[in-house]
Structure formats: C-alpha cells, structure tokens
Amino acid sequence: MHLVTGATGLIGSFICRAMLKAGYSLRALRRKTSDMSLVKDIQDEIEWVEGDLLDIVDLEKHMQGVSGVIHSAAFISYDSRDEALMQKINVEGTANIVNVALKQNVSHFLHMSSVAAVGKKITDTLVDETHTITPDDNLTGYARSKWLAEVEVWRAVAEGLPAVVLNPSLVLGPGDLDKSSTQVFKYIWDEKRFYTTGTVNYVDVRDVAEVAVQAINQELTGERFIVSGGSVSYQQLFETIAKFFKKRPPNIKINASIIKGLSKLDRVRTLITQQKPLVTDELAQVARNSHTYNNQKVREALEVDFRPLNETIQWCCEELMKKEEKTYLKSPQ
C-alpha cells in the first residue's frame, strides 16, 4: 500500500493512474473540501482518507500499514502575500510527513519537488542536478518554499529515510484551468494579447507520472532527478497552443522590465480592491528565464523518452476542449 498526497491535483492524479496501472494499491490523503473532478475516473479504485499535512496525528494514523509514500501535495503561488502559507504547507507539511515516514520505517519515499528548488543563476544556460541554491539567491517565494521543503527531505535521508526527489519543470496536462500550470491554456483560450521574451522548460504530466512509477519500482534513494522534456520560447509555446485551439496567438511582446512596471500599477489596484494581483514582481522574475534544465541524468538512469511538445499540446487541447460544455472552457464575454 502506498500513501499519496496531492492525489486530487494534476500531477498527483496522473501518478495515481500510472500506479494503479502498474498494479499498486493506493491510499490517498484528501481534505473535506478537495475537488475530486480530476480523479473521478479512478476515484473508486483508491482508498480515500481525510486529513491534513499539518496534523501529525492524522498522518500517523493514515500511514499505518503503508510501505511507500508519494508526496506531491504543494501550494503554488507567485503572489508574495502567499509566502507564509507556502512555507506552512510546503515546508512544514513536508517536514511532518518525512518525520512520520521515518518513525514508521516506510521502505521508500518519493518527494515531488520542482525545478524551482534546483534554482539557476542569471548567467546559466544549462542547469543540472548539481546546482545548489544559497540563501542569497534571488528566489520567488514559491521557489524558496520548495527548496526548504527539499532541505527537510535531505535531512530525513541523512537520518535514514530511503527517499528520491523529482524536480519537474512546467507540467503540461489537462487539469483545472484556474489552477497551477494549466492556466497557460486558459490564457490562450481567452486570446490574451501579450507574450514575454523568456524561455520556459516544460514536461508532459504523463511523463512525470511514468518517471515516478519507475523511480518507485527501482526503489531509488538519495538521488534527485530533473524531469523536463525540453525548453521553448514563451512565444512558441503560446503559438502552439493557439494552433490546436484554433485561437489567435498573443502578438504583443513585452519584456521583464515592462512586467515589473505593470506589477507596481497592479499593486495599487490590489490595495484598493483587495483582489488577487494579476501581475507580480515574481512573475517578472519568471519571465526573465533564458536557461534550459538538463534532463540527461533521468534519461540515462530510467531510460525515459520524453514526449515532443506538439504531441503534448495537441493532447492537452483536445482533452480540455472535451470539457468545454461541462465545466472549464468558457468563451470570453
């Protein structure tokens, strides 16, 4: 039996599908308010338990009889006001679950991190797993929380936890259009006009799930793997999505300095309306990216063949358009 956190999210739901297909039995941690729409096709094949990463008693109870743990739950935001919450969920929650895993002697632990925790320097063009973050690096709040979460995992490894860390780049898949990485598809569906000059690293969610299953099958420990299919300009990514959606692609180029200026204006709107910011300084940081994360280690260790971008985008767009009448995709008013 494997315990999965974050099972109702994009990455977690596809890991669950791949694990079930491989013959594993699963117990998944969920909250009372969890949206089950991404797992409705496999919901009855999983043992669901209600709990919280911040409740150690819950974790100890639900981890009984578990041989392995897949920790994919995380809170993602590029709003600096959410940093305290990200620290609470991503860092404290990870510390709790690795501590309980150590106490209950699980045989293996898979931590789903992010390339944000690998970091990069402005001068980097190719980044691999040997890159190390320091407290002086200019990190987004999300990157800082994922890095500190990894610190908790490596501390547990030093204490005897058999754990492996996966660092996926931007994960593309037919998830919830109002959450996480799938919002990029909503941006194109709504025919927004702007694109940035930066580069984005991407990976198909099905590839992430397959890597996770292989890492579990091999019971890898003490290693981290960048899981990324490649890199592409934001302009090319947007144009590819627009092609399969049959939408107009963004055609106004803006750079990071413009985004930074817009973020200052948006801060005023946010203070007045108390709404979530549309543009932030942290988004400006992301827009400056011009590097590629090296996937050589995972390709050699697990013999992974990553899906090409066109195949991934076509699949995502087709799956999302199937949901159009039911829930997500609404034409702009």
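The above is record 1. Record 2 follows with the same two-line structure.
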Amino acid sequence: MGWIITLKHLRAYHGIHELTFEQITPQFLEDFRTYLQTESVTKSETKLSSNTGSSYFNKIRAALNHAYLEGILRNNPVQKVKSIRPTQNKREYLTSEELKALAKSECRYEILKKAFLFSCMTGLRWSDINKMVWDEVHKFDGGHRIIFNQKKTGSLQYLDISNRAYELMGEPQERSQKVFKGLRYSAWHNTALLQWALRAGITKHITFHSGRHTFAVLQLTYGTDIYTVSKLLGRSELKTTQIYADIIEQKRKEAMHSIPDIFGD
C-alpha cells in the first residue's frame, strides 16, 4: 500500500504521464524531496509528517538502488541526494503495573480487551492480529507457535507465544475462522480503548499500537537482548528497535545509582 501511495505522490509532483529513468536526476530528486516536505498532502488535506515523507522518499531511493544493482541505471542519482530525516515520535507504552491494572479493568468491547492484551504479550501489530486465523496457530514443543506472513512487510514470521497469550485467543475454532472475530478499527473502538485505560487509572494516550511498544519495552526491561527483541517484533533492521532502549527509565535509574559512594567511609 505504501508503494502505491508513494507512486501517487510522485505522479502528483512530476505531472508527466510517463517518467523515464533519464528524467530522474539529482535535482529532480531534491525537488521531489522538497515537495514532500512542503506541498504534498494526505487525503484529509493535511501536510505530510516528516516521518511519512521520509518513508515515501526512501521507497523512491530503494527503487533506484535496485535499478542500479540490476544494471538498469549506469549512474545512481540517489547517491547524491540526502534522505528526509525522520523525527522520533514519543512511543506511549505501559509499565508492568499499568498492564496488570488494565487486565483487571472492564472494557466496553471484550474482544478489544483481549486483542490489545494479546498485542502487549506478543508484540504483534493490529493488522496481523486482526487478520489472524486459526490455521496460523500450531502446537509446538509443548506450547503454541504462530506462523504467519506480516501484513506490513509480507515476510514470514515464526512466533512462539506464552500460555497466557494463548488463553486470550479463546477456544479454537474452524481453521479458516479469525481468532479475534469481531475485532474492529474505528473511532468508537479507539475511544473505548482510552476509556478502558482511564478506568484503570492510566492517563496516557494509549492507542492499539501502544501494545507493541509495551511488549518491546517490557522485554528489554526484563533482560531480553535487543537482537532477540528485534526478531520477536519481526523487524529486519536492529536500529528500529534501538529506539526502545532509550525509554527504559528503570534501567537508567539503576545505572545512575550503581556508582559507588566515593564519599563514604
């Protein structure tokens, strides 16, 4: 989907029915980068965020790099053009105590509660949880393993889940049936998620994606190495997971208080 939207922005910018590789010069790319940062808008007519613009521009870079490697281009114009630097957005997550409070609180939609807690315990995105069917759930080594293709990347992932996470899935149904049947993404459900958090005494702005953030932070907090966490999240690059290491306040405090008292007896 991201590639299609990128193509739409590229067409809106150049206004040419057919664009050839010869027309894509370093200056063309610099102008397109400026267009994404200053003029391009979303469907709702709002300006693109720097992260969104960065994502679209990087797809153009990836396409040109691939064309160069395949010998379609003799010179790669993108090598002379800088990327759009993304901004680091605040990642809202729950502490273990907040997660316990949430589990004990009532949610308007029970299926939403189960799916969100499942995300917190597995790190799965909403899109993968929503499309999950029982055919992707397998018994493995005394527990359960989910084998699925990530909707965002299309890559195959093997994910062993805990017994508690498996319980949230409910009783097994027909292999073609969705695990979290009835799960919806709407303004009503987003509001219900916030209301549920408030009932648990949590004032953070929680979205469904906060479940994925919660999983990553808790794994790192309890000692799982960052490489393993990256693989559990289904990421292809370690640097996208390193962001979570910067938000573990507990580890920071422990590090600061680990220095011996040089003024002691």
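The first helix runs from residue 2 to 14.
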